[in-house]
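The freezer alarm interrupted the setup, so I double-checked each line after restarting. Inputs confirmed:
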Amino acid sequence: MSNQVLLCAIDIDKSYAGVHALMSASFELRAGEVHALIGENGAGKSTLIKIITGAVEPDAGKITLNEIAISNNSPRVAKHLGIAAIYQQPALFPELSVAENIAIGLEEASIFSRTDWRARKRRAADLLARVGARIDPDAEAGDLTMPQQQLVEIARALGANAKVLIMDEPTASLSEEDTQNLFAVIRQLRTEGVGSIYISHRLEELPLIADRVTVLRDGRTIDTRVMSEVNREQLIQLMVGRELSAVFPKRTVQIGDIVLELRQFGCSESGVHDVNLSVRAGEIVGLAGLVGGGRTELARTIFGLTRADQGEISLRGKRVNITGAAQAIECGIAYVPEDRRRHGVILDLAISANITLASLDQFSRMGALDLSREREIAGDYTRKLAIKTPTIFAPVATLSGGNQQKVALSRWLVTKPSVLILDEPTQGIDVGAKAEVHALMTELASQGVAILMISSELPEVLGMSDRIGVMRGGTIVATLDRSEATQEKILALALSH
Amino acid sequence: MKLNRYKRELSAAAAYAALLIVVAIIAPSFFSTTNLRDLALNNAPVLLVAIGMTTVILVAQIDISVGSQFAVASVAAGVLAKSGMTMPVVVALVVLIGAAMGSLNGALIGWLRLPSIIVTLAMLVAWRDALRWTTGGEWVQDLPAHFQWLGLGQSLGQWLIVIASLLMLIFFAWTLRNMAAGRAVYAVGSDAEAARLAGIEPTRVTFFVFVLMGALVGLAALLNAIRFSTVPSNAGVGLELKAIAAVVVGGTAITGGRGTLIGTLIGVALLGTIGTALTFIGINPFWEKAIQGAIILAALGSDFVLGRVERMRAAHVN
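Predicted 3D structure, all chains:
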């Protein structure tokens, strides 16, 4: 490993709609090193990568390559300078051949020039040989396995003379053997002077591949260490330690009988398996875990959006078989999905229509809607949840994120659920709206609603939950009581062993 | 705020009003009872088809097979009447035949999730050629006396056609606004996945919208056929374009989820009278199609501009 600094990110600031994703984050990559970048969900890893690859423009700070600042960065500029990124899901054109995939972006030719098919194939073969892949350049990319596709992407990056190679969770879906092959390729590149940024949640593989490690937390660079001098526990220690920024309005309420119970519950379609979990009336159960751990998949299976084909689900002690959202609603289950802008609300519809959409039966007789009652209820909830709007007839698209989330919540409160599943209920909304949502959850719990809350924000999970289920690899690996749970414990369980 | 929500409809209405004013100044004879009656009669079937098309487009689908369905239903009406059935039975059967053709579209598009443009293109060709093959291109002639005007006589029959169409318009306009089913149509068209999460079944909604489309085509074909003493086997050519154009001009978003039947009524009226109006003003009627095309483009253009303004406003609020 040489000591020559290759790439530098200096005091990078970036916020999305008032939420700070990066706050004077800095990062340094040397030529010929593998530098691991780790952090919790939302720590700012992806944003930093996007800024380095030019996909996102920083609000402040600069990126330098060989000590020269990159101006007007864009994916095109970054590629030209030799910065290449490989993501968890390979981004090849499945209908094109391997050689063509490698050629795209490498051949600088006008649209009228003739294609030299033979040269194209020869180069592809050369590059593939360099990464040690035995892949036919004529094969269709879509027919390759996932690890083969990754190698093709690395070959393409080499073809572009990449000096900086960014890999985002490249081993997430690789077998042990494929992982070792990939590592061999990365080590080979290291000797050639390529600097690699390696993002992974698999802490145990970092000592095998990384020279140094940088930890991000809440958009800040916490520390950069030499990999051989830190252990797993110290890394976890650095990743958490997030301060409890808000006081959570948690109240002790009367915990009642079990409302929702899952036994060996699973769904092969979405990879959820062997889930055992119960939620009692008045209880808030938090689901923690990393993205990809299966939390949203579990919620969607409980709600009948993907078909459960393992184990059983009971409501108030009675076994039920849920085959769709409509039936789940009838059973008293409500699901406020993550990513409300896409699926939690219907942007074109009026606030009033959104609020009643999941309980149209309640508002209609013989199919005819009672519009005055709809107005009344929508008005009630708009006031109760303090949804800021001039009129309940305004399309939801005109509201801010926090107010949209309140509309999504209202829709499900109208159904009077006994089980309320909240998927990232406060993601991307401002602090005020967040506190209101938390207060509302407490209020609902005190009314005896059983709440299952998915959250990637550990302080929120710790602050709001009575019990915490930690998910990894599609199942709940442990359930912790409020009193025994800490950020370190949860993260240690969520990261694979 | 209220007016703001109907600006698409309002801009179509303004265009129509402008046209009528020009006609009123240059050629007041346009407003003669005979002319208006003929226009109403000619456009009543288009209106019925456009009502169905509005619901289809509201769920973000399209049906280009309505012209061929119309021909099949027309011939069916004639054949059934000739077979000696009473007219109420014929009416019911033709509507059912239309619904059956629609349910075939609906099953393929709703349940099998095939793209509606391809499915209905196939049906457009298939029904038309199947009909040509069955009838050998011959018209249905020697219809019983009670077929024309349903045996009611010309003036009563004419009233019946116009009133039946308007009643349908009012009924479905009310339904879209005031029934749970109407709400489901808008929800599915705006965001099918979000609608599914709210407990609505997009496949079912889509299926029934196409069934309704077919039934309305059946009714339109019947009400059109009874105006004549024979039934042509090539009726309804180009009907799909007329209906889709009227819906779009009336302000319904081609991407689904937004639009009203009042807008569709204005669209049918505007596109349905412009040809005649041009003749009265003294412009060569060969310009009709070109002007219709320009109106459609103008409607889409305003849609684009209004959409951008709205998005900018939404971004501003955020």
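Quick read of the result. The first strand of chain A starts at residue 5 and ends at 16.
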